[in-house]
């Protein structure tokens, strides 16, 4: 018979079905190494086993439970741990119920792999650990091994300390029909409808899956107020079991290799409840798709457990459910007095797309959890294709009296694009959290089709106060309408924005309704949005301050740095410290207020400030507000192509402008704005401000050498010589082409010649030699005597002849004799 590709494919399907059918319907069979007994068909009862203390050990050659079937461990009520191993080399297919008596913890160990079908369920009183490890290790070194069943096991009464993984751990799969979570709207808590299929342990217990690759396909794992553990290992090593009040927590060895974890088709890890539980996931690549999520909702009075997700290579959250109501999320909610879960993410690469999110929220009096991310590369992009308002987001939020948690980001590269958001938001009376980012490169750019622009922000829609936003980076780019800032829409105080870039900041371009900017603002929303957020028409909040510190700040194509108040509150102050500031093509540095006091602008520039093509530095006050002050300190200030420095007001007082510089090019003072480059401080109906320019030129004393204060008589430096009777003369005839200074070049000046007769001026005076006075000669003592007062006095005898000193006069007299 000739086989075709079609027939081979059909044969393959038949063989796979036969294998699957055989595994699923194989009886639960003991392997005879222990005293395990099994009875029944489809609904199996397991009795006896080997008991040591409060531990019960079972050993099976096969362990599979068919759909609508069950396995019941008929253990004594005082048993604390049931250890079950599968040694036959077949995968365990569990599509029915597993039951155990009392509060015993159940361990299922099968190195060949485990598959939980959509109808699998747990009815046990303790924790459940399913693993594809080779053995379970105990304190004194004993092992309960599934790969060496022929050796008589050394059974123990102690608690297990770890799972010994093999070189190639087999995978674990959990199948289901997807969760049934729902929500009324974006601002409401998630509604926890019961899942049709799920693996669930009792409240306060642990549900752990530890193996190779772990795949959840529409699965729901539930441990209300308990602990969910997923550990995906790629090689040999010991996974420690640390005993906690909620069962067990997994710990991993240094340098251990990991495998992949995938949550797809609305899979759910749920630890919600009164005093909600904890989740820990450890793997290589961890992916959430199709509205899959980790969820912690706390109704109680005690703090929630933490959510920890760690990957050795990457973590990705992508997409939403088909109805776009539930996104791929890692999410914690606080509904009562107990705080929400803290979320910790550690990975080399974190990617969020298509409306996914990492969020902590509070709806009650408790605070929402903190959110901490350590990742080399972080990318947030886009929105839900089914719901453009559902943006990709990392947020902490409050809708009640509780405050939001902090967002702490540490890494290398951060990219936010396509309308994505990294923010702390308050919709209630609680304050926002802090947003603190430390990395090397940050880019915020673009918007989504709904006009929502990419942002890093702190926002308050109610009467709670806003905390500070701090960005410490190497390079910062804000492009195509991206925003970094703090906004307030009601009362209270907006948050401060502090940006430090050790290399450079570039702000450029715009989106459909927003210029790229760094800002702190209080803004009046549209009537529709005020109604949506239940905001009054009167805006009284004060804007926060903006502080920027960088070697180079470049604003182009409408790029803006601003502090703004559109209500009765005050605009914040704006301070920039930089080596260079460049504004090009309608770039703007602005402090603006409507009816409060305008904020001040302070620019401390080490090298130069350049403004071109209708760029502006301005403090502006509308209606009754007073204009803010502008203080600029820069060695060089250049304003070209209708660029202005202004501090203007309408009815209030114009602000003051104080400039300290060595030189201004292009800019000139004007009482009103013109088409030229102006410096103005005016008020349309009020009092004009003042403009003071302190131009500091080059110090004329710099580089000069101080001359001596004691002058020397040049005549005393000329020695009297012996002259003949003809006399001598010195004639000065001008420069004669000789430079005044040896370092100067010789000019091409014509030498001046004096052709007058100088004979009349040549008179030889009579030679007059002066006899110099001889200094008194020292005499040697020749005797001594004692004076009447007792002192001894030396006596010298005057010599009879002393030779006079030789002078020109003596020489002349001697020659005449």
Automatic annotation (TrEMBL):
InterPro entries to which the protein is assigned, alphabetical: FhaB/CdiA-like_TPS (IPR008638), Pectin_lyas_fold (IPR012334), Pectin_lyase_fold/virulence (IPR011050)
UniProt superkingdom: Bacteria
Organism the protein comes from: Nostoc parmelioides FACHB-3921
SUPFAM superfamilies according to UniProt: Pectin lyase-like (SSF51126)
Protein name (database record): S-layer family protein
NCBIfam families, sorted: adhes_NPXG
SMART domains per the UniProt record, alphabetical: Haemagg_act
A Pfam family assignment: TPS
Filamentous haemagglutinin FhaB/tRNA nuclease CdiA-like TPS domain sequence ranges: 29-139
Transmembrane residue ranges: none
């Amino acid at each position: 018979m000739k086989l075709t590709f079609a027939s081979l494919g059909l044969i393959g399907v038949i063989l796979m079905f036969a294998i699957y059918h055989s595994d699923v319907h194989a009886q639960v069979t003991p392997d005879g190494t222990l005293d395990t007994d099994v009875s029944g068909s489809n609904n199996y009862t397991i009795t006896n086993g080997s008991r040591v203390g409060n531990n019960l050990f079972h050993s099976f050659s096969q362990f599979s439970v068919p759909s609508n079937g069950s396995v019941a461990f008929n253990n004594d009520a005082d048993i604390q741990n049931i250890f079950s191993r599968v040694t036959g080399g077949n995968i365990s297919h569990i599509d029915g119920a597993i039951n155990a008596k009392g509060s015993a913890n159940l361990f299922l160990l099968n190195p060949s792999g485990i598959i939980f079908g959509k109808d699998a369920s747990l009815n046990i009183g303790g924790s459940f650990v399913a693993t594809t490890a080779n053995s379970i290790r105990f304190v004194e070194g004993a092992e309960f091994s599934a790969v060496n069943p022929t050796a008589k096991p050394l059974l123990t009464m102690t608690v297990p300390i770890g799972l010994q993984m093999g070189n190639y751990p087999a995978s674990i799969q959990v199948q289901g029909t997807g969760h049934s979570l729902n929500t009324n709207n974006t601002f409401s808590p998630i509604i926890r409808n019961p899942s049709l299929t799920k693996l669930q342990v009792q409240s306060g217990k642990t549900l752990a899956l530890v193996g190779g690759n772990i795949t959840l396909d529409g699965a729901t794992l539930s441990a209300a107020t308990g602990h969910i553990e997923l550990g995906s290992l790629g090689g040999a090593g010991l996974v420690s079991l640390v005993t906690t009040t909620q069962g067990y927590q997994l710990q991993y060895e240094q340098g251990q290799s990991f495998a992949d974890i995938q949550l797809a088709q609305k899979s759910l890890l749920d630890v919600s409840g009164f005093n909600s539980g904890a989740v820990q996931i450890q793997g290589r690549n961890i992916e959430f798709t199709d509205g899959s999520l980790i969820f912690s909702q706390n109704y109680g009075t005690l703090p929630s457990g933490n959510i920890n997700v760690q990957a050795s290579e990457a973590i990705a959250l992508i997409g939403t459910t088909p109805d776009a109501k539930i996104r791929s999320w890692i999410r914690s909610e606080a509904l009562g007095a107990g705080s929400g879960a803290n979320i910790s993410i550690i990975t080399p690469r974190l990617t969020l797309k298509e409306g996914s999110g990492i969020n902590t929220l509070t709806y009650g009096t408790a605070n929402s959890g903190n959110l901490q991310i350590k990742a080399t590369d972080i990318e947030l992009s886009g929105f839900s294709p089914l719901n453009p308002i559902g943006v990709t987001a990392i947020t902490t939020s409050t809708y009640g009296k509780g405050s939001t948690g902090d967002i702490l980001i540490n890494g290398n590269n951060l990219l936010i694009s396509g309308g994505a958001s990294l923010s702390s938001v308050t919709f209630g009376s609680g304050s926002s959290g802090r947003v603190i980012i430390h990395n090397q490169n940050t880019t915020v750019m673009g918007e989504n089709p709904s006009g929502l622009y990419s942002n890093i922000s702190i926002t308050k829609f109610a009467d709670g106060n806003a905390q500070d936003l701090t960005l410490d980076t190497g390079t910062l780019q804000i492009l195509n309408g991206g925003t970094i800032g703090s906004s307030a829409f009601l009362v209270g105080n907006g948050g401060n924005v502090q940006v430090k870039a050790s290399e450079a900041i570039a702000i450029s371009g715009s989106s459909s309704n927003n210029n790229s900017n760094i800002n702190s603002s209080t803004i009046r929303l549209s009537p529709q949005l005020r109604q949506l957020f239940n905001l009054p028409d009167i805006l009284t909040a004060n804007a926060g301050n903006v502080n920027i510190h960088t070697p180079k700040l470049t604003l182009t194509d409408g790029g803006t740095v601003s502090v703004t108040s559109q209500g009765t509150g005050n605009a914040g102050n704006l301070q920039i410290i930089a080596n260079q500031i460049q504004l090009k093509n309608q770039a703007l540095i602005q402090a603006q207020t409507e009816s409060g006091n305008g904020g001040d602008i302070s620019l401390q520039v080490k090298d130069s400030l350049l403004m071109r093509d209708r760029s502006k530095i301005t403090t502006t006050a509308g209606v009754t507000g007073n204009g803010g002050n502008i203080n600029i300190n820069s060695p060089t200030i250049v304003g070209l192509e209708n660029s202005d420095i202004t501090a203007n007001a309408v009815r209030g007082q114009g602000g003051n402008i104080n400039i300290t510089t060595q030189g201004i090019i292009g800019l000139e003072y004007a009482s009103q704005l013109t088409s030229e480059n102006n410096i103005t401080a005016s008020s349309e109906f009020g009092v004009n401000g003042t403009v003071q320019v302190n131009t500091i030129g080059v110090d004329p004393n710099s580089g000069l050498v101080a001359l001596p204060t004691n002058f020397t008589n040049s005549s005393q430096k000329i020695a009297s010589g012996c002259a003949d009777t003809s006399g001598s003369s010195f004639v000065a005839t001008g420069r004669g082409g000789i430079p005044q200074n040896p370092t100067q070049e010789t000019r091409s000046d014509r030498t001046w010649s004096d052709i007058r007769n100088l004979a009349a001026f040549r008179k030889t005076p009579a030679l007059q030699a002066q006899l110099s006075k001889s200094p008194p000669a020292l005499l040697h003592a020749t005797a001594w005597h004692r004076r009447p007062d007792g002192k001894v006095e030396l006596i010298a005898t005057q010599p009879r002849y002393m030779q006079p000193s030789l002078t020109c006069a003596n020489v002349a007299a001697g020659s005449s004799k």
